[in-house]
Structure to design on (934 residues):
């Protein structure tokens, strides 16, 4: 997922699994979509009966049965992300994610990771602006043990100054590794800090260097006590298990954790009206090929009026979803002035989110010309709309990506987890294919006209530093 | 093979080859029994939770072999295949040819030009990908089973009749060129090229996979056609298929896809090469971190010591969280976020490589800690407990990581063919790991880790030798 920070860098995938998963945006229940698009195969899949229930202590549970391999993905999502941090404490959510791997009253540091290693499972965690998630992929027989560990560290962590200090050094190295050594990442941070004038999304998930350096044990303990509780968590179990089994195990483990303090609704500062066009430029000696990206504030699935977020998903697909998109065809193929052109909409977000296009030049093409050409494509949709054929093709691409996603258990688990952790419901996930299907060409035109306003945007330029 | 991954440290230009180590199975003689089926359990010993994976060798009427896992739980078919050769086959002066060719398979084939082909592919609901790696050109397609006829037909013309029209050749070349130029001043990319030439000398592995500005400029469509004919031939082909298709239907598709290709590849000989160790490479660049990599000798998958080497690598730095390097460098000292080791295997070269990025002002300390861990492991070997834990990990992780999705199963099955393993390998693998004893891993640890490594540091200060 974009914008998430794992505790360890995940292994890369094999050559041909790099099939374009970038189109995947939302998930669905297998049958719901197949019913609509590919009736003959419906009977082929009898998985997909997703079940949810609530434990007495307020913990939400979602079970996604998937029996095609004897593995299970166990995830706990906390409804706490970097955008919930107190002023001056940037990075605490992600830093705390790291600390969750330390000793508890019942388990020494490393017991959990060793237990996972003995099964040959995988374990990791990640933080983004709206949530923090911890997960293990293991054999079904180890599920109860994982739930035990995860329930234990929800409340019983023991933090010492030494542990906090060393892990803070690790996170500082992580920031240097991810951001400081990467001009593109430095620019992205500055673009976020400019696009968002009020919303906490302006602060990087990993935190600002000088604020991470100040985080201490007292901050960590306060954060833990406030946010790590069953009533602020969602359990997602996907894989070779039945809901009944998960329920029994969840009650035995998570069910024993007392309900935590009541949390106020996540009402955070939101954006004022956008009135200006802003630009951010990074000139760096390590850059030899320039690029730009333009960002707009747009509603997310949670904040949008009905149908708007779905229309934005389709707009991103039509405008810059791949090599058949308008930007790519116009700038890369027909005019031959760019080597890459794409668009992206991050719909799963608690507050308003961003829609971005990015372009890199071919040969001596000037960024200003590319920006004008890309802007013209955006304006053309806002003015003339999209054709029914291209809309249908875009829907088809989204749909088949979701069908392909059935093969990726962790992907489906992530969709449910991220939707529920950003205020969505199971129904939102289940009905998404149908809502996508109902989007009209007029709706796509309307969101382009309403939100992709040239004068209300933020553009970031990455520019080579020339010798003189 | 779980830990036999290339994470782009040795070869950041061509990262992540999980599918075995690119060893060819040029003379693979699979049993010519039509639809020989071997049903086995993925996880022996977990009786209550096992799922049967139905793996079979399908041999088409015209003699094309594929490993098939039939699985009807989702309406999807995934096909993966590789032709031996890869970027190591780029002719002198035409470096980057394989990579450029791989970028052109959806840019026009048969009667269809680029635009027409892509429209049809989109309409067929399929996703196709080609990639050139050091030892092979990989292709794949993922399709909806109800539209498989149209999808396979497009794959057929892509494989057999690529057009290499001038316009898409120039366009894709410009994209590659841009990515080369983009890295010209990127310190880690610069260092990677320096490192390659230091450890591989003039061997083809020392060359940049994407080519250079000069070599790309000299490639013409006729070069691509000739290279295609030389590489896309039946004796260098390995195929795996997973999903909603049965053996009979696949058999017909295999003939359509591959039977009309030439019988034999025309491969230039590529010598085996041991990386040149025992040398320092220091690249000065004003960065907030120093990145370090250390190369030791490696061991290939057909060597009797391969499993011992895998276990040693896991214990050293392959196991996430629990490896010795993770513990000493990150957990105890907070010196790095990323620290790992990988057993990197290519068809003609093996190495065990340790990588990390660390605070520039403590790089010497980090390097010292790494070398101390390695020295101890070389001298005294792992403990019995560590060995047992790493065996359990290695056995369990294979099922969880290698067989968890259609694409990872297909990748694994291709890797097994490249490593010349039989169809029963997945069943036999746990015993191969179990039988490694403590004395053997100690001997292997000593053999690999006592060597004086090749070391590279990229960062602001070069006083890291300590």
């Amino acid at each position: 997922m974009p914008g998430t920070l794992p505790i360890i860098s995940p292994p890369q995938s094999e050559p041909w699994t790099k099939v374009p998963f970038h189109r995947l945006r939302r998930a669905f229940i297998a049958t719901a979509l197949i019913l609509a698009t590919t009736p003959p195969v419906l009977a082929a899949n009898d998985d997909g009966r997703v079940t949810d229930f609530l434990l007495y202590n307020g913990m939400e549970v979602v079970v996604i049965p998937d029996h095609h391999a004897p593995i299970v993905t166990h995830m706990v999502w906390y409804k706490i992300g970097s955008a919930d941090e107190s002023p001056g404490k940037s990075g605490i959510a992600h830093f705390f994610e790291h600390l969750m791997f330390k000793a508890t009253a019942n388990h020494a540091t490393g017991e959990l990771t060793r237990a996972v290693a003995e099964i040959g499972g995988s374990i990791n965690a990640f933080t983004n602006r709206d949530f923090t998630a911890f997960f293990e992929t293991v054999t079904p027989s180890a599920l109860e043990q994982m739930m035990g560990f995860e329930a234990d560290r929800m409340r019983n962590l023991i933090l010492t100054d030494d542990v906090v200090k060393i892990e803070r050094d690790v996170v500082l190295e992580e920031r240097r590794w991810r951001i400081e050594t990467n001009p593109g990442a430095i620019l992205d941070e500055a673009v976020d800090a400019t696009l968002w004038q009020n919303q906490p999304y302006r602060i990087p998930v990993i935190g600002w260097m000088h604020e991470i350096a100040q985080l201490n044990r007292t901050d960590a303990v306060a954060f833990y006590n406030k946010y790590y509780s069953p009533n602020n968590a969602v359990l997602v179990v996907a894989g070779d298990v039945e809901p009944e089994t998960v329920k029994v195990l969840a009650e035995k483990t998570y069910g024993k954790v007392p309900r935590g303090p009541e949390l106020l609704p996540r009402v955070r500062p939101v954006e004022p009206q956008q009135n200006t066009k802003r630009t951010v430029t990074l000139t760096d000696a390590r850059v030899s090929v320039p690029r730009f990206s333009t960002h707009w504030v747009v509603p997310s699935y949670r904040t949008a009026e009905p149908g708007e977020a779905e229309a934005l998903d389709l707009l991103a697909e039509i405008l810059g979803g791949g090599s058949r998109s308008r930007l790519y065809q116009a700038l890369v193929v027909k005019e031959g002035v760019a080597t890459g052109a794409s668009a992206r909409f991050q719909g799963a977000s608690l507050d308003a989110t961003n829609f971005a296009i990015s372009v890199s030049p071919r040969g001596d093409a000037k960024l200003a010309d590319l920006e004008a050409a890309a802007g013209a494509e955006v304006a053309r949709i806002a003015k003339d709309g999209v054709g029914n054929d291209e809309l249908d093709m875009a829907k088809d691409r989204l749909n088949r990506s979701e069908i392909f996603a059935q093969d990726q258990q962790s992907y489906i688990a992530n969709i449910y987890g991220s939707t529920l952790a950003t205020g969505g419901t199971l129904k939102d996930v289940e009905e998404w294919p149908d809502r996508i299907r109902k989007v009209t060409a007029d709706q796509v035109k309307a969101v382009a006209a309403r939100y992709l306003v040239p004068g209300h945007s933020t553009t970031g330029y990455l520019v080579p530093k020339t010798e003189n | 093979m779980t830990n036999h991954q290339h994470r782009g440290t040795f070869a950041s230009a061509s990262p992540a080859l999980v599918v075995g180590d690119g060893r060819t199975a040029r003379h693979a003689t699979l049993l010519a029994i039509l639809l020989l089926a071997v049903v086995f359990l993925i996880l022996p010993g977990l009786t209550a939770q096992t799922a049967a994976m139905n793996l079979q060798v399908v041999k088409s009427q015209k003699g094309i072999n594929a490993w098939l896992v039939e699985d009807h739980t989702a309406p999807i078919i995934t096909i993966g295949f590789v032709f031996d050769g890869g970027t190591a086959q780029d002719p002198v002066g035409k470096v980057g040819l394989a990579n450029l060719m791989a970028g052109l398979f959806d840019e026009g084939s048969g009667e269809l030009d680029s635009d027409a082909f892509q429209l049809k592919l989109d309409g067929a609901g399929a996703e196709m990908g080609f990639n050139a790696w050091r030892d092979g050109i990989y292709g794949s397609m993922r399709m909806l089973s109800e539209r498989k006829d149209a999808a396979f037909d497009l794959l057929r013309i892509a494989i057999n009749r690529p057009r290499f029209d001038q316009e898409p050749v120039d366009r894709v070349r410009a994209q590659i060129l841009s990515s080369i130029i983009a890295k010209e001043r990127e310190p880690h990319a610069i260092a990677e090229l320096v490192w390659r030439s230091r450890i591989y000398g003039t061997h083809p592995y020392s060359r940049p996979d994407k080519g250079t500005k000069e070599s790309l400029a000299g490639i013409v469509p006729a070069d691509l056609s000739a290279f295609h004919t030389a590489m896309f031939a039946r004796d260098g082909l390995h195929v795996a298929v997973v999903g909603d298709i049965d053996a009979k239907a696949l058999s017909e598709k295999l003939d359509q896809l591959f039977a009309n290709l030439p019988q034999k590849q025309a491969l230039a000989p590529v010598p085996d090469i041991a990386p040149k160790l025992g040398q320092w490479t220091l690249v000065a660049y004003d960065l907030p971190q120093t990145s370090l990599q250390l190369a030791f000798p490696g061991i290939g998958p057909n060597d009797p010591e391969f499993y011992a080497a895998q276990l040693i690598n896991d214990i050293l730095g392959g196991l996430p969280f629990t490896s010795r390097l993770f513990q000493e460098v990150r957990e105890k000292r907070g010196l790095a976020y990323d620290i790992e080791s990988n057993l990197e295997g290519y068809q003609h070269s093996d190495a065990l490589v340790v990588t990390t990025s660390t605070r520039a002002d403590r790089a010497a300390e980090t390097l010292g800690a790494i070398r101390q861990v390695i020295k101890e492991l070389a001298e005294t070997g792992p403990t019995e407990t560590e060995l047992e834990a790493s065996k359990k990990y290695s056995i369990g992780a294979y099922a969880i990581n290698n067989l968890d999705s259609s694409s990872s199963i297909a990748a694994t099955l291709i890797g097994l063919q490249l490593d010349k393993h039989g169809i029963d390998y997945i069943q036999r693998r746990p015993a191969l790991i179990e039988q490694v004893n403590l004395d053997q891993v100690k001997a292997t640890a000593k053999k690999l880790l006592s060597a004086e490594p090749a070391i590279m540091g990229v960062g602001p200060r070069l006083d890291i030798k300590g």
User: Anything to note?
Assistant: Residues 161-180 of chain A form the longest helix (20 residues).
